[in-house]
């Protein structure tokens, strides 16, 4: 529904229009002017915020144009009520607003035409199309960004001028305002006209696709990561970018939605977004031998139909959720899982995926997670020198269904944090809630605020505790280093710049490898400086994108969380962890239903069992779950050696050899069948090479 400020702005705007009518009927020029200002400002604020409420107003026939029109009609009513109906300013106002609305149609048509004519059949990153085709600069952003709002707001000159005339009794200001509105509206339309000419738009579809095929012929991609989904699912492809960068083969990323491309994280891997199914099927992918799929979606069929490559489902994380054993997975040549657990899930689910088609490759994304090196100060981890063990509390969010088992934050969160901050010997608490916490449940939002207050209060009390002495000089150096790094990152971000539109971004979207590597190095340095910029014993609430969750894993000695991928990832560290049975299933049933908690300390909502976790942190030699964690880690994520990325590369190489063997076999069979024209025709499309599809050939799947 939007924030409280957005709701207030929407209320002011909606109430402003009845106030305008009342002021026009009274009539009162000052009151009308005040209500006009409120409606303008509230409307502008909601647009600046991109508020969901603006879209809802359009659905109930109170869209942007209607709101401006009503305000102008009420201004005409005010003039009539002020006995100006026979004055020239009255007719001038009517003529101005009619002409102004007459300009809306050509303005909207030109904006739409420019956007459509500049939209290419494909959009790319890290692919050199600039040397192959001419892509002109985009129109200035100020012309097309929120263009309808800008055009309509040109009526402000006429409205202000007419109100001044109504108040002072002189028509001069009114005619000046009317003239400015009409002239600026016409000028805006005329400025757009040159950008629909041929020299201002990219080449035609066939020329762009030919340039892409020319690049593909030179690059010869071997392994493709294919992805389709909504903009909210971009994280599913982003999590594989670093893995793609580390492949031993030449990688290529194929996306199907422009929204995904716009939300793609920076990468050095070539990326092509191909919204059209026919365009994808006509791409020359004859050198590709392995295609990787991160999601099960209908548009996968457009690449799955190519027989010259092997197709693999890699998913976007292993878990006990139904999505991890989707029957759709039968369509792939292989299904890759992190460890034995994934293989067993398919066997238990019995959805038609053969055991021979499952390959365990580990989780390359977990490489940044460091193994536990033990507590800071020996077996007890007391705070004699100002350091103490760190426990991360990272609850997930409440979800959409109201299930109390989704998150611990409502029923158990305060109990967990109270016990941690009161622990003796002391521990440090890092509280990192899920970013969606409180978006659905008011109770979850309120609990989050109370937990935040608890942590901040405990941090203030610890700062006054004589047992804890900060190293002020070291912290000052770290803060100075943070400032330096952030300034450089801001400078690098500015150097990248925002491209004018998709076509321009395609033309100029070649990553600067040196800059990319420097940003990566600086983010690592930022993380190190961040943790040194405050005492190692200080309780802290961590929100926002930085520091990342894995960074919090690496500075923690234990974690308390809920059933989610957070737990599965933390298991890679080998550190003690606890999971809250917020739904009160009972410890045994909770373990039976959730593989990831088999080596966890199970907490009730009162967190009475938390002492077991703290004992494991303080005295690792007496931890009864050490061996269980090692066994579970291997079961879920596979062995530590060889490294997961090496396993992944090995699996890619093995499957590529199978694809090549299949293609060679088909060529041999075709050669032997030359005497039989019918069989030759049947085999031709099964060989490596470009597949030509017509507009109607989409195998029953929408090519959009």
In short:
The chain is α/β, with parallel strands linked by helices and 704 residues long.
Question: What would you say this structure looks like, in words?
Answer:
There is one protein chain. It is built from 28 helices and 14 strands. It is an alpha/beta fold. The strands form two sheets. Strands 1-4-3-2-5-6-7-8 form an eight-stranded mixed β-sheet. Helix 13 links the parallel strand 3 (251-255) and strand 4. Helix 1 packs antiparallel against helix 2 and helix 27 (644-672) packs antiparallel against helix 28. The protein is globular. The two termini are 31 Å apart.
Helical proportion, percent range: 40-55%
Number of strands: 14
Strand order within the widest sheet? 1-4-3-2-5-6-7-8
Share in β-strands: 5-15%
- What's the story with the biggest beta sheet? 8 strands, mixed
Q: Structural class of the secondary elements?
A: alpha/beta
**How much is the radius of gyration in Å?**
31 Å
Mean pLDDT metric:
88
Q: Total helix count?
A: 28
Q: Name the poorly predicted regions.
A: 378-386, 688-692, 694-704
Query: How far apart lie the N and C ends?
Result: 31 Å
Shape: globular
What structural keywords apply?
6-stranded parallel beta sheet; alpha/beta; 704 residues; single chain; 8-stranded mixed beta sheet; globular; 28 helices
Task: Record the SSE blueprint.
Layout (H helix, E strand, L loop, with lengths): L3 H22 L3 H20 L3 H8 L4 H18 L6 H31 L4 E3 L15 H4 L2 H6 L2 H14 L3 H21 L12 H15 L3 E5 L6 H5 L2 H5 L5 E5 L2 H5 L8 E3 L3 H6 L7 E4 L7 H4 L5 E4 L20 E4 L2 H10 L8 E3 L29 E5 L18 H9 L6 E4 L10 H22 L8 H25 L5 H7 L4 H20 L7 E2 L7 H7 L2 E4 L3 H6 L6 E4 L6 H7 L7 E3 L6 H9 L7 H12 L6 H29 L4 H8 L20
Parallel strand pairs: 2-3, 2-5, 3-4, 5-6, 6-7, 7-8, 9-10, 9-12, 10-11, 12-13, 13-14
Antiparallel strand pairs: 1-4
């Amino acid at each position: 529904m939007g924030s409280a400020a957005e709701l207030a702005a929407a209320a002011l705007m909606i109430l402003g229009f009845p106030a305008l009518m009342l002021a026009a009927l009274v009539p009162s020029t000052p009151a009308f002017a005040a209500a006009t200002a409120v409606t303008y400002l509230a409307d502008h604020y909601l647009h600046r915020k991109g508020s969901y409420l603006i879209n809802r107003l359009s659905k109930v026939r109170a869209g942007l144009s209607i709101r401006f029109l009503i305000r102008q009609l009420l201004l005409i009513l005010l003039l009539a009520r002020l006995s100006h109906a026979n004055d020239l300013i009255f007719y001038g106002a009517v003529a101005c607003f009619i002409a102004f609305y007459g300009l809306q149609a050509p303005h909207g048509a030109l904006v739409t035409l420019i956007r459509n004519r500049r939209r290419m059949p494909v959009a790319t990153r890290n692919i050199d199309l600039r040397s192959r085709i001419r892509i002109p600069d985009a129109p200035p952003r100020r012309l097309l960004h929120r263009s309808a709002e800008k055009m309509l707001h040109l009526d402000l000159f006429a409205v202000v001028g007419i109100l001044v005339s109504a108040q002072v009794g002189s028509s001069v200001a009114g005619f000046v305002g009317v003239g400015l509105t009409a002239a600026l509206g016409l000028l805006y339309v005329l400025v757009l006209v040159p950008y629909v000419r041929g020299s201002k738009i990219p080449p035609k579809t066939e020329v762009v696709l030919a340039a892409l095929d020319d690049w593909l012929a030179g690059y010869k991609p071997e392994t493709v990561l294919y992805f389709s989904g909504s903009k909210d699912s971009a994280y599913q492809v982003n999590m594989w970018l670093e893995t793609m960068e580390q492949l031993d083969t030449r990688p290529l990323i194929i996306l199907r939605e422009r929204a995904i491309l716009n939300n793609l994280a920076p990468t050095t891997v070539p990326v092509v977004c191909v919204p059209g199914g026919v365009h994808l099927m006509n791409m020359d992918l004859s050198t590709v031998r392995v295609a990787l799929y991160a999601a099960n979606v209908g548009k996968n069929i457009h690449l799955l139909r190519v027989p010259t490559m092997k197709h693999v489902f890699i998913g976007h994380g292993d878990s006990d959720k139904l999505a991890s054993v989707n029957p759709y997975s039968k369509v792939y040549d292989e299904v890759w899982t992190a460890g034995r657990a994934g293989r067993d899930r398919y066997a238990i689910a019995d959805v038609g995926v053969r055991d021979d088609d499952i390959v365990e490759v580990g989780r390359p994304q977990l490489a940044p997670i460091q193994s536990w090196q033990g507590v800071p100060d020996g077996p007890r981890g007391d705070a004699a020198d100002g350091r103490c063990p760190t426990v991360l509390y990272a609850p997930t969010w409440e979800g959409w269904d109201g299930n109390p088992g989704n998150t611990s934050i409502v029923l158990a969160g305060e109990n967990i944090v109270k016990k941690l901050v009161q622990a003796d010997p002391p521990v440090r608490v890092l509280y990192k809630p899920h970013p969606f916490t409180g978006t659905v449940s008011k109770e979850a939002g309120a609990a989050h605020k109370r937990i935040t207050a608890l942590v901040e209060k405990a941090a203030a009390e610890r700062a006054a505790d004589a047992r804890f002495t900060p190293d002020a000089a070291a912290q000052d150096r770290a803060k100075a280093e943070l400032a330096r790094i952030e300034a450089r990152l801001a400078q690098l971000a500015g150097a990248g710049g925002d491209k004018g539109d998709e076509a321009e971004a395609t033309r100029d979207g070649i990553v600067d490898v040196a800059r990319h590597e420097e940003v990566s190095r600086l983010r690592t340095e930022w993380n190190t400086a961040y943790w040194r910029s405050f005492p190692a014993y200080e309780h802290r609430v961590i929100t926002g994108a930085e520091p990342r969750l894995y960074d919090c894993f690496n500075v923690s000695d234990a974690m308390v969380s809920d059933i989610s991928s957070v737990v599965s990832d933390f298991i890679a560290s080998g550190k003690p962890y606890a999971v809250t049975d917020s739904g009160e299933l009972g410890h045994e049933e909770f373990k039976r239903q959730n593989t990831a908690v088999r080596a966890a300390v199970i907490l009730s909502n009162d967190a009475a069992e938390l002492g077991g976790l703290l004992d494991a942190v303080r005295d690792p030699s007496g931890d009864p779950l050490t061996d269980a964690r090692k066994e579970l880690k291997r079961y879920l994520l596979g062995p530590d050696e060889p490294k997961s990325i090496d396993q992944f590369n090995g699996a890619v190489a093995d499957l590529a050899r199978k694809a090549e063997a299949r293609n060679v076999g088909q060529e041999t069979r075709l050669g032997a069948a030359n005497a039989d024209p019918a069989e030759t025709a049947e085999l031709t499309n099964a060989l490596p090479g470009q597949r030509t599809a017509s507009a109607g050939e989409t195998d029953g799947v929408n090519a959009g």
